[in-house]
Amino acid sequence: MPDTAMTAPIDKALSDKDIIIRALEDRVLKLETLVSALGDNQSDLRAEMRSEIASLRTQIKDLKEELEAGIKALGSKFDRVMGGKAVVTALVTLATSILGSGVVHLVVSIGR
Predict the structure, then answer these.
(1) Are the C-beta atoms of residues 78 and 10 closer than 8 Å to each other?
(2) What is the DSSP letter of 91?
(3) Cα–Cα distance between 105 and 30 in angstroms, integer?
(4) CB within 8 A of 12, min separation 6: which ones?
(5) For residues 105 and 46, which has the higher predicted lDDT (pLDDT)?
(6) CA 101 to centroid of chain Cα atoms
């Protein structure tokens, strides 16, 4: 099970990105509402707002892709750290076992 202290920065980064994405999506919805309320005599403003909406949708898509790529990168780094931790633990256990056996053998040899 992952250590919560190690995953806390990852969770914070994901939360921050989610907040930014939600804010952009809210902005898009507001602009779409305003565009639908514009009359025919405001076609220039309507075109400009549609351009802004398209730009915001592109930003949202880019942020989501960046978020997914970041999650994959952090996941693989986390897996490597946990794998490295397991290897170190195994080596320490092996060394302790070997040293323990050696000490027991030494004590038995001296006791004879």
Answers:
(1) yes
(2) H
(3) 78
(4) none
(5) 46
(6) 44
Give residue-wise pLDDT tens across range 72-105.
777 777 777 777 777 778 877 877 777 777 766 6
- Do the domain assignments include residue 109? no
- Cα–Cα distance between 43 and 49 in angstroms, integer? 10
Name the one residue in this structure whose structure tokens are 């040293």: 99
- 56 within 8 A of 21, measured Cβ to Cβ: no
Contact 53, 75 (CB under 8 A): no
Q: Does 98 map to a domain?
A: no
Cα–Cα distance for residue pair 104/102, rounded to 1 Å:
5
* Residue 99 covered by a domain: no
What is the extent of the structural domain holding 32? Answer: 4-82
Verdict on whether the full-model pTM lies above 0.85: no
Place of tokens 């919805």: 29
Residue 92 in any domain: the answer is no
- Domain total for the chain? 1
